[in-house]
Amino acid sequence: MKRCFHSTSKGDGVGEFLGVSAKVTIGNHGKDDFLLKTLAIDKKKLDPSYFEKYDNIKWEGEIIAIGDIHGDIESLKLILRHANLINENDEWVAENVLLVQVGDVLDRGIYGPLIYDYLFQLQKEAPLKKSRVLLIMGNHEQLNLCGYFNYVNEKEVEIFFKNNFNNRFFHFVSTEGAYFKKLILLPAIAKVNDILFVHAGINKKISSLSLHTIRLKTRLQIENMCRILSYDKSMNYVSRNGVLWYDHISRTAPYDEKEACSILSHVFNNYKAKYLVVGHTKQLTHGITSYCNGGLFLIDTGMSLFMNNGQPYPNYLVAENGNFKSVHLNVEVNKKGKDCDLLEIELNNPNKQSFCVHARETLLSSPSEG
């Protein structure tokens, strides 16, 4: 497992780490093409995933965003079924829909690996219906990729990794691990139309960088076992100020909305954006909340039943034509097989269960309000 730089002098080593020959040059550089301009690396010799663009995704259809899942596959599937994205066989059926999940699929609950297997499958199925699944990296994905298993549910290790933490370590931390190979590709931030999607938030300092540079440096630091990059010590991209952890805006908004919106305005100006959608900061109401005249949406509702004594709180955000609405699902396991008053949803995998579901929709923002 090779995950660290081997530097012989200040700033050297990234070329060897990436598997190419590179002469490192230290000095001023532009916002974009960090690897090419600063490290003088031949783009043709690099894995193309380093240059995949998430800066200006255009989408004309419906956008559905889901917050932190934390191992609760049933809440995820209840959302997907209620939003008519999948059928009773868990197959993607929706046409012209973009599904965005903003990270923290892993930890706390027991089904994190299974959820990612399923989401990766939906990523393959969705394009057949002219749809797309966009997965954003969260801080708990970062923690796992760097070997911090403090929040891993032991039951998950028992079920998926033969009760062997070393087995799990290989899958998530080794560059040859099945989950490392896939999760390291998740973008730390993306822009769809005029909407920024990120797990936690973005501050003024880091917003001086291009979205591509933020994604690239976050990935490179994770690949460096989360250690600060030797050739860029000005920023720790996986710290409290990085986009995977920065929660000042979402924590400040309920108490000092003016300050939060001031930071947000600065970020929007830098990226020509109008909206920010984040997870990470659990809403105590267990519902999606909005601030800054409908410009900020906090969608971590603490949905996972593993965090709420067995009670799930599935919610999702719907955006289309400048309108944003939240959908809150009140769910109850139908243990006695009684008739549900409104909607009944049956799930078959991983557990066969029936749920009575009552949905509450709330309009959060519309073009006339913004």
TrEMBL record:
InterPro entries from the UniProt entry: Calcineurin-like_PHP (IPR004843), Metallo-depent_PP-like (IPR029052)
Pfam families (alphabetical): Metallophos
PANTHER family on file: SHEWANELLA-LIKE PROTEIN PHOSPHATASE 1 (PTHR46546:SF4)
Originating organism: Plasmodium coatneyi
Protein name from the UniProt record: Calcineurin-like phosphoesterase
Domain Calcineurin-like phosphoesterase stretches: 63-281
SUPFAM superfamilies hit by this protein: Metallo-dependent phosphatases
Top-level lineage group: Eukaryota
Alphabetized GO MF terms: hydrolase activity
